[in-house]
Amino acid sequence: MAESGGASGGREPEAGLTGLQRLQIRVLHTYFRFARGMTLGVRAAVRNEAGEVFLIRHTYTPGWQLPGGGVETGETVGEALAKELREEACIRLTGPAQLFGIYFNRNVSRRDHVALYVVRDFVVDEVKKPDMEIAEARFFPLDALPHGLTPATRRRLTEITEGIVPATDW
User: Fold this and answer.
1) pLDDT tens figures, 108-117
2) Which fold has domain 39-162?
3) How far apart are CA 98 and CA 40, in angstroms?
């Protein structure tokens, strides 16, 4: 006998299933979460009025890069961006950041993506001092970027400053 009411027949998806079938579905969904799960990070190209860009150098990985970090469960990308800028740069957003591109970061994992924002509306609350995570942090003129700039950071800055369509990979 056919039922109406959509793909699930108008019932809960697990209604009428045996305990073993419900367990199999839960195991399958758990597998999908880990096998097909995705991680998401944010980065910011913070540009001051002089056209300089803010860069950081971590204590635990080589190279100068754009500030940013992971988006935590229950956190929006905007909240993550604001948090990372406060923590890594002592920078507070005073207006909306502009989404520039979303990238697949296959060098980190086959599940990692990065949302890159351009930030022009901000205040620097204080000079960022070295800590356990950040070894150095400051603004640099685009024509005098530091030695050790990561290749991905160089590519992103070129895209932004030259108006190039963002690549798909970080």
Assistant:
1) 788 899 999 9
2) Nucleoside Triphosphate Pyrophosphohydrolase (3.90.79)
3) 17
